[in-house]
Amino acid sequence: MEVRPGLDPAVAEVRRAVRAALAGLPEGATIVAALSGGADSLALTSATAFEAPKRGITVLAVTVDHRLQEGSAEVAAAAAAAAEALGLAARVVPVAVQAGAGPEAAARDARYEALDAVAREVGATAILVGHTLDDQAETVLLGLARGSGAASLQGMAPITERGDGCRILRPLLDVRRETTRAACVAEGLQPWDDPHNTDARYARVRVRERVLPTLEQELGPGVAEALARTAAQLREDAEAFAEMIDEIIEDVVEHAEAGISLSVGALAASPAALRHRLIRHVVAAEFGQSLTRSQTLDVARLVTDWRGQGPIDLPGCRAARVGGRIEFTAR
Fold it and tell me: Which Enzyme Commission number(s) are listed (predicted)?
């Protein structure tokens, strides 16, 4: 146990999580800490301010002002001031949230665009965000309720590599929300409570305030941890499937006129899970479209239940069995 005399256990837990995340970064790196002012991001920023100097890492705390609520500029300024009091450089970035998408998704997109822009400007190798184990459990439950498949049930990864030299780090995915709040109390930090986090119009809030507590009450404690473990296991499975697809894709794919094709024999010899992933992978890679499970099964029946049925219309393309291959052609 690394808790030193006088060090609050919650503070120690958050610092250990951040230390482990920073260990994967080069010494002397520059990183961006996303700071909303809430308990999760404030505890994360405080721990980062403590741990980063040990590795010579420069930290810029960035607060995105979505300008969706009255007084948002003052909230953002207070968050930046808290970061500066912790010894960090801080910046507030106002953004315009685009109409059209759902408000949560639109705000998230605007937030990440702003964080990305700052990260590029300062040459950051990582952006740290404060998602906790509770956020992970909520994400898995929402994905389960929407029936959106294993990809959404994987939840959020601790590290998201993006191919631009800057990764997203989520150090607190094994830390409970109550721990981040306790860490703020122990360090005398004053988090901001976003009123959107208690607005029952949002599905995530209903999951947080009603669904998860009911599950804990009816099934016993540990539901959130179990959901987070499930997400981790599904990510491991997905990584294994991705490696299998990379190994065999060149052997089963051929370019066809106006499209691409898959070998019927190879698909028939593959387990159903791999067969379905190959079908989805090809459509996504070639046509930039995602297939539902129903659409995927329709294509798979061209392999497993072939009775001379005609082409299948899919998003952006059409699938048809031609001899020993399944051809996907643009519509």
Answer: 6.3.4.19
